[in-house]
Amino acid sequence: LALTGDLINSDRRLDEITANASNRAKIVFTAVDILQQLILDLNKNFNVTVASVCGNESRIGKDVAWGTAVASDSFDLMIHEILSRLFTNASGVHFIEMVDPLECVVDVNGANFLLVHGHNGLSNTTRMESEVSKVRSKYAARGVMIDYVISGHIHSAYISDCFSRSSG
Questions:
Q1: 121 with 9: CB under 8 angstroms?
Q2: Nearest CA to 86 among 127, 32, 145, 8?
Q3: I want to staple 26 with a disulfide (CB 3.0 to 4.6 A). Which of 8, 22, 51, 126 is the partner?
Q4: What is the tens place of the pLDDT at every residue in 90-114?
């Protein structure tokens, strides 16, 4: 299960506050409940691994910056950690520790999937192919071959042979 950020909406602007169903503290628990049920349902038939990165909409503070300390001050990280603790002793459920809130490489049967939020141009359909090539080259220079990139950020789905974007 790849969670690419923006699990809940921002409330930095008045129209966002009034459009949200509730305040974000309450919405965190709703998100945890929904994702917990999804994981439990999947786990009836499959082993489940959960990997997450943080987005820009779920930031706790008003500032949006991309350094590790600011990016991890996020409801996305909070939801990941709450779920991870709920499933600590669950058979067949594994959470990948969110070491870097912006990128996560997941090995799936020998293929490396890179999870990113996509705020850096990776989710812009007109530039996705070139941006994916850049990020794959960055990892290749470190000796890590990326087979597929999964992002979010832009709220419409896009799927290709080497990358995809979830609709959020």
A1: no
A2: 32
A3: 22
A4: 999 999 999 999 899 999 999 999 9
